[in-house]
Design brief:
mainly alpha
Amino acid sequence: MGRKGKKHLEEEKPWCFYCDREFDDEKILIQHQRAKHFKCLCCNRKLNTAGGMAIHMLTVHKQTMSKVPNAKEGRDSTEWVIEGMNGIPEDFDYETGQPAAKAAKFDGGYNPGGGSGMMGGMM
């Protein structure tokens, strides 16, 4: 669970998945996420996760929230349950900004040796 291009010679500092900012400890990271990414835009309530904020927005303010505020493109989904360093997708592709499973769909359709192609293993 690291970022692209990071050298792993020393222990990695806690960092925010949504904006890539580094912190000295995880408590400060969680405070940052609550203040910048999980803060209600209507009433300024600070929640623990993006999903919790989406539910709060819907039930209290009757508004839908589709993106995490102040997040980088591709990292703004409310479907991930990320709190501090917990819940960061291990298969996240930092080049495309999508989980690796979604990025693999766009491989051009070539499937060497796979049985799910057009021939379906009929040879």
